[in-house]
Amino acid sequence: MEKQFDNFDLIDLINSKYFKFKKVNEEVWNNSYNISITNSEWSVIYLIYGKQPTISEIAKQVDITRQATHKCIKTLNSKGIITINNVVNSNKKKGLKLTPLGEKLYSENKLLKESLERDLAAKIGFDTVSLLKSLLANL
Q: 42-79 pLDDT, tens per residue?
């Protein structure tokens, strides 16, 4: 294990590697595509994909403040990645949906993450990655 991680417990190691992978994913994306998307924006995109949640539903699921969630949603809307619509039978609630551009970006980012996962598997072994995914999924 790297010297800098000697005093880390399991939670610290997972957290450290999580942020490292997210940073690498964001950097590779932003260097490869002309649309810059933050990790918070990706979180919202992944929560919207295949659904039409409300803003309040998204705000409850992301690990950022409600105000930051609203700003993130507004930014995604201004980039043409999501649409914000009125919810039927509600004057207050707003529904979210990915645009065709948002769907395309989601798919391309999913491929990028799969590529990064294959790179990791090449370093630590495909069986190890499979086991790790299985263990984490069952927590």
A: 999 999 999 999 998 999 999 888 899 999 999 999 99
Range of the domain at 86: 3-137
Give the bridge partners for 98, in sequence order: 82
Can you give the pTM of this predicted structure?
Answer: 0.84
Distance set, CA 67 to CA 24, 52, 75 (Å): 26, 20, 12
- Longest distance between any two alpha carbons in the chain, whole Å: 58
Dist CA 37 CA 30 (whole Å): 7
- Cα angle at 87 between 81 and 89, to 5 degrees? 175
One-letter amino acid for residue 47 of the chain: L
Close Cβ partners of 63 (under 8 Å, ≥ 6 residues apart) = 43
CATH of residue 63's domain is: 1.10.10.10
- φ/ψ of 130, rounded to 5, equals -60, -45
Strand, helix or coil for residue 96: strand
In this structure, are residues 25 and 113 in contact, taking their beta carbons and an 8 Å threshold? yes
- Give strand pairing partners of 101: none
